[in-house]
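INPUT
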Amino acid sequence: MTVVGHVFAEGNGNWTHLANTVLPGYVSNSLILMVGVGTLSTVLGVGTAWCVSTLAFPARKTLAWAQLLPLAVPSYILAYCYTDLLEFAGPVQTTIRTLFDLDPRHFGFPEIRSLGGAIVVLSLVLYPYTYLLTRAAFNNRSISALEAGRTLGCSTVAVFWRVALPLARPAILAGLALVLMETLADFGAVEYFGVATFTTGIFRTWFGLFDATAALQLSAVLLVFVVVLLALERYSRSQSRFHETSERVQNANLIPLTKGTRWLVCLLCALPVVLGFLIPALQLVWHASSRWAALFEPEFIGLVLNSVSLAATAALVILVPAALLVMAQRSQPNRLVQSAIRFSTSGYAIPGTVVALAVLIPFGAFDNAVDTAATRLFGVNTGLLLSGTLFTLIFAYSVRFLTAAFNTLESGLAQIKPSIEESAYTLGASKRRLLTAVYIPIMRGSVLTAILIVFVDTLKELPATLVLRPFNFNTLAVKTYELASDERLHEAALPALAIVAAGLIPVMLISKGIQRTERGVI
Amino acid sequence: MLSNIKRLSWLLGLSVVLTTVNAAEVNVYSARKEALIRPLLDTFSERTGITVNLLTGKSNALIQRMKAEGRNTPADLMITVDAGRLAFASSLGLFQPLESDTLASRIPASLRSPDNLWFGLSQRARIIVYHPDRVSLDELADYEDLADAAWAGRICARSSVNIYNQSLLASIIEYAGTDDATAWAKAVRENMARDPQGNDSAQIKAVAAGECDVALVNTYYLGGMLSNPELRDTAAAVRVHFPNQSNRGAHVNISGAGVTKYAKNVAEARQLLEFLVSDDAQAWYAQTNHEYPVVEGVPPSDLVASFGDFKRDALNVSRLGARNAEAVQAFDNAGWE
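OUTPUT
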């Protein structure tokens, strides 16, 4: 709202200046980034999901849950780690140069701090979203169709292109939309790599040109992207309705492979996990190795407690509006409800700092208005009621992460076909009985998933936390950022590792949940 | 019974008095990161009994937050790391003037606001580092020289999103005008060995590794790397050159602080500011972060002293803030992303 309000504000010369100089660059960089990350993470996510769902190869079960591990690594931490390893002065390039005695100036090692580097880093942390959704689609819906395809004599490859992909298309598109929204909102990694996207451009305009109006006008252009993405996501959902009639999951028969192919598939599926999780995690362990003692210092314990309790609170709080919206959509699927939902779930693609500032301004105005009124009426100073409290922070998280919770719950609820409700009613079930016997058991999994996704997202969130947190309150993400942005990666390793470790627990639980659906329990 | 009540109320009264005494506090918004400010604040609290509440963050975000909080902001003192940021905050009316003989006498006039709205607490020079094997100082005297075609493919620099580059260009605009400054930025951009990226340490590493021959960096980055066992060897490969010694002097910038317009604890904020320019605090800054003290007579760290003495640009740093927006536009026009 704050953003939209400023769009029509009186412009000054800066907007023309921006449009003439940097705006085309922001647009093209953002577009290239989105196309690149979208393509790469779809290939990784769908490819691995297909392999672990249908092919028999060594370590298949381990690799099936390990695909989620990169979710625990924030994009900025991956960016720090790979820069440290791969930059011109880093160990990899230095070793290659020394080994082959190469001239530094004419040695064309690809630059990690670049658009290409950003595409790879973001794809590695975001492909698990595509994987998660696509895998669920492969599990729940298409297995029997795939088997039918194979019985009819199609080759494995043909089944993939002709049956599996079309069936999973809605899930792939939903995953893609999520990935693209995260890409658009990313600040940490692109800023570190010096890639001028919309997101970094907004800050530069706001704080370099001191022009909030032009910055918010840029944000409005960004919102156009968001609307397109949301439309894409909606479209994929409307498509998915046609596929919900399939039968309960069958235990799939895996396709056997020749020996060489088995190991090749194993290697290919291991690669994104190694790059997106193992290498950075080992690097952090290595950097942190001389500093384990700090683990038991009160400062560090305080950081862990702050971060975990904040993330847990946010996850539980956000569940409420998400559940209400899902229920509203189910019971009153009218236009008003639809647009309310679209509005409240658009925050996912908006960068954390923009959300933070957009929250800051109305909250500050509200507090000051209340204070003025109270002083005038009762002679009491109320001061700042909301600004600078955890309330504001959690509100900002809600704006950012409501989408994630909503989508998860929505897909969970979609499993309950209207026919189930109808038959329950026909059998004389009361509303309460419907709730306890139908909704709660079926929804339990997706509620848990929603809580966990928001938990991990909050734990990793940086810009909004940095802007909105109260006095004397730091989190692991803030600490990591402060140290790493000072190039003190060795000291940043411990809090970074703690974020990854704390993010691992939910990832494990989610993968447990998937294994259960695999067995047909849902 | 009665005496019990009496005793109780006496205790209550005492505790009220005690809390009032203990309630002396000052709230600080700091763009200076926690590790580089908390120890000083703790020393201040120990000496004065004044509690210091700290909120760290990016300067721009802190400024926006303070603006949104308006007259109810809890912030009494705002510490930030660049004159441009201090000027930005002043332009939004976030500071109040503070008359203090201590501050006026200890901080040189060019390092504080002419209206006493903010005060420099430490200073850093933006200098040129070079690789001694590949650069002879005969070809390099001033910032202006970097625009020369002789430097094609030899320069590393960070992006213009960074305020340090913005302030440097602001000073060039101040002396040479916007057109010349834009032409300079364009030429330097064309001479770069790689696209602008990374922070100042990354520039030093690139020069050390041979990706480029010279880079623009702030002095304390080099100090920090030289005092870090893991980075010492890299940093030792480069040398410091202070530019413009035969004319205006090397560009300097400050970290600084101002008392907020709506501060509730002005006396405590003033006390803290005065403490931050005391010899002890200045020496701590110098040793810990390898910045130059603002107070004359307090020596820099040994490492920084080894860079040598140099002539500093005497331009009042408030001009850097005044020219900041022009500098950003000039970078845009020059294509220095």
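end of record. The CA atoms of residues 64 and 104 of chain B lie 28 Å apart.
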